[in-house]
């Protein structure tokens, strides 16, 4: 991981989403190819489904919540992506870029989760690409493709947090804002690499990120924002205050997942599971 630090720093210094789009397209192709190879191993000699447990233990439910909600990781780049589109009106609507993209994401996550567990059961690893025989060239190629794809999309995921941090930090650098921005970018990359090295156990860490960050960003905050927006509007809460009850239910679900998911994820990270 440390060997990739210079290249990650280069990607982090790109300040315009337009220049990151080609890398994202290449990453999508690599992911599709890598998952195609992985599906070949998954569908090859599937066991009888009656031999596979229908459910895991209740203690694993918070981990499932965190991992599943991690699928919403793209929510952070929604508004910047829409703002940088040539025709932003194409982003929402039916089908629209957002609906099409999220449909593909949900379909891919569901397919990999269902058939991956059907094939490997309790032996399913944090990354499904680690389950096929690692001494075979196709399996190694799939793992390499996914790794390269994640590397190529680092700049895109880095864009939003950097924009938020820099918006509040640029006032402290006076006339040396460009230098200050680059220093912050490099420091953040070094920090993320150090975290990756310190926590090699991917599964619980993904669950932790999902439980802490995405339960708030994807569930609680949108519900609170909607309530604040419509609260003083005439009939803004809808008939029988259905918007109020809907958002209370979503917020409660997010808080429950946040607390239980965070606790179990940290526990598993500390235990090295």
Automatic annotation (TrEMBL):
The chain crosses the membrane at residues 20-43, 63-81, 102-120, 140-161, 182-199, 205-228, 248-266. It comes from the Eukaryota. Keywords: Membrane, Transmembrane, Transmembrane helix. GO terms for molecular function: L-amino acid transmembrane transporter activity. GO terms for cellular component: vacuolar membrane. Residues 2-267 form the Amino acid transporter transmembrane domain. PANTHER family: AMINO ACID TRANSPORTER, PROTON-COUPLED AMINO ACID TRANSPORTER 4-LIKE PROTEIN. It is a multi-pass membrane protein. This is Amino acid transporter transmembrane domain-containing protein. It holds the Pfam family Aa_trans.
């Amino acid at each position: 991981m440390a060997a990739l630090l210079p290249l990650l720093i280069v990607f982090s210094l790109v300040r315009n989403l337009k220049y990151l789009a080609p890398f994202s397209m290449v990453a999508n192709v690599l992911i599709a190819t890598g998952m195609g190879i992985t599906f070949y191993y998954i569908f090859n000699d599937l066991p009888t489904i009656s031999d596979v447990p229908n459910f895991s233990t209740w203690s694993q439910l918070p981990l499932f919540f965190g991992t599943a909600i991690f699928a919403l990781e793209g929510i952070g780049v929604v508004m910047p992506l829409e703002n940088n589109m040539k025709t932003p009106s194409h982003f929402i609507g039916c089908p629209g870029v957002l609906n099409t993209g999220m449909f593909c994401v949900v379909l891919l996550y569901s397919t990999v989760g269902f058939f991956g567990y059907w094939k490997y059961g309790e032996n399913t690893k944090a990354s499904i690409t680690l389950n096929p025989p690692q001494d075979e060239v196709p399996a190694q190629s799939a793992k390499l493709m996914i790794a390269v794809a994640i590397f190529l999309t680092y700049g895109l995921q880095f864009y939003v947090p950097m924009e938020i941090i820099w918006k509040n930090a640029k006032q402290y650098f006076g006339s040396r804002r460009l230098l200050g921005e680059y220093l912050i970018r490099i420091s953040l990359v070094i920090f993320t690499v150090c975290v990756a090295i310190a926590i090699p156990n991917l599964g619980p860490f993904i669950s932790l990120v999902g439980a802490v960050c995405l339960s708030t960003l994807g569930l609680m905050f949108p519900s609170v924002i909607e309530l604040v927006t419509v609260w003083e509007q005439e009939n803004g809460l809808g008939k029988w205050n259905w918007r109020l009850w809907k958002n209370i239910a979503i917020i409660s679900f997010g808080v429950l997942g946040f607390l239980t998911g965070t606790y179990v994820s940290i526990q598993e990270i500390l235990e090295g599971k």
